[in-house]
Amino acid sequence: MEIFNHNANVPFLRMRKVSVAIAILLMVASVVLIFTRGLNYGLDFTGGISVEVKYANTIDIGDVRKALDEAGIENPVVQSLGGSRQVVIRLQPKDDKAAAAATAGQSESARADKVAADVMAALKKERPDAALSSRNFVTAQVGDELKSDGSIAAIFVIIGIGIYLWIRFERRFAVAALLTEVHDTLVTLGVIALVQREFDMTVLASVLAVIGYSINDKVVVFDRIRELFRLARKADPEEILNRSINTTLSRTIITSLFTGITMAALYFFGGTAVHGFAITMLIGIVVGTLSSIFVASPILLWLGVSKKDLMPQTRDNPELARRP
Hints:
- The protein is an alpha+beta fold.
- It has helices at residues 16-36, 43-46, 61-70, 97-102, 108-126, 140-168, 171-195, 201-231, 237-269, 275-294, 296-303, 307-310, 318-321, and strands spanning 40-41, 48-55, 77-80, 86-91, 130-138, 198-199.
- Helix 6 runs parallel beside helix 8 (201-231), helix 7 runs antiparallel to helix 11 (296-303) and helix 9 (237-269) packs antiparallel against helix 10 (275-294).
- The two termini are 33 Å apart.
């Protein structure tokens, strides 16, 4: 199944100066956005109050949000919990001076009790069968630990991918993959910072998923590069890299298209709890696909990849022994 001619010869490598310049510009802009606007951290990272509520009968999450909005409770995060009769409501702490003055001198437990009481009053007004199951106060310290752990996880994933590619291919491929993975991660985070989409644990999970998805596209192109280098008698690096992109282009676009359709379905039918995951994955799919086509191979070319780097080096090598 192909949507592009397998024998096409679109000169992607001729555009390498422009494409890499754009990639660098996007990375710099993303870093600036992350440090100036910052990420809009959710309750998982900032701390706040979590209230679990049980209903005697089935409840729709939309009705819960409507009841909270009508009571003037701002920015509640409502999620189903273990079925259709139990929900968890998460509220971020207010930063305004009036709220701080009103809760001055109160313990965390007292503030949580006050918020839980307000929530239950709003819910019972609409549905008398609502009952408080539990309430918890999440401290900002826990959020700081999650930020640190998430950053470390992303770094270890990228480094692990680099080591794997060094072993499977060659060090130039590992370097190219590491640079493009950093690009994909930064640009994805930059877009999230630009639109101020809430950054919670589901978004963090999707960022890690983007890293894995992105490298999958690049491995397919890298594998074709190695194959064509070994088959060609006179291997001009630019020609081989360009040919590899063209022959894998249909696969790259089809995979991205159908993964994007899946994420779109998750966004429209999966509920608000997975909106952040789906949107982040869609951003990452677009960025990762473009970097696989326009960024990874130009980096390989500038690093000086050649046929010699990918050929077996000794007669004891089983692969070389099978050659005529």
